[in-house]
Amino acid sequence: MKDIKLEVSARHIHLTQEAVEILFGAGHTLTPKKELSQPGQFACEERVTIVGPKKNIERVSVLGPVRSACQVELAKSDCFALGIMGPIRESGDIEGTPGVELITETGSLTLDKGLIVAKRHVHMTPEDANEFGVKDKDIVSVEVESEGRKLIFGDTVVRVSDKFSLAMHIDTDEGNAANVGNGDGTKIRIIK
User: Model pTM?
Assistant: First the structure.
């Protein structure tokens, strides 16, 4: 079996082109800073402040390219700090989620929905899914080997597309719980 890369996804925001222009100025386009592991995805130079009733979270990364809907992805500990509880959802499933205010030096935008805690997931190509004996939307458990904190993550959704690259994504709270970080060579395996 192929090795599955484990990636810890920090808080970030996906924006529509309309939101980009409201927050950064008319005609503005996102400025790629660093390519991400998923093909066509990139971290941007742009940063946004998320405004909450308890506190603000500053300099939150924007990821590109632009999307058809705005989405704010936080860890549960970020939600506690902000004072707004986002539900655990798959990316893109934002109906019925709380909104939040975003500000920059140029503009501000109040979203009426879009704040989530991303459900942990494994990206796979159809060929990978066949090799691992899983299909799109399967729920699996994943064992993470780490120094002093071996952990099994249940309720992990499998996401299959020919546009994906093989990787598991967890948030910073989950990474801390398992004592893992990006690029540390952590070994994981799917157990059903």
Answer: 0.94
CA distance 26 to 108: 13
What SS3 class is residue 182?
coil
pLDDT tens, residue by residue, 166-185: 999 999 999 999 999 876 77
The identity of residue 44, as a single letter, is C
Domain hosting 27: range is 9-118
- The domain that holds 156 is classified in CATH as 2.40.40.20
In a domain, 96, yes or no: yes
Q: Does position 47 have pLDDT exceeding 90, yes or no?
A: yes
Residue 9 CA to residue 168 CA, distance in Å, equals: 10
Q: What's the whole-number mean pLDDT along residues 95-107?
A: 98
Give the separation between CA 117 and CA 121, rounded to whole angstroms: 12
Q: How far, in Å, CA of 99 to CA of 87, rounded? A: 12
Examine the domain organization and report whether 18 and 35 are in the same domain.
yes
SS3 label, residue 162 = coil
| Same domain, yes or no: 136 and 100 | no
Q: Which residues of 119-150 are buried (b: 16+ CB within 10 A; e: fewer)?
A: bbbbbbeeebbeebebeeebebebebebeeee
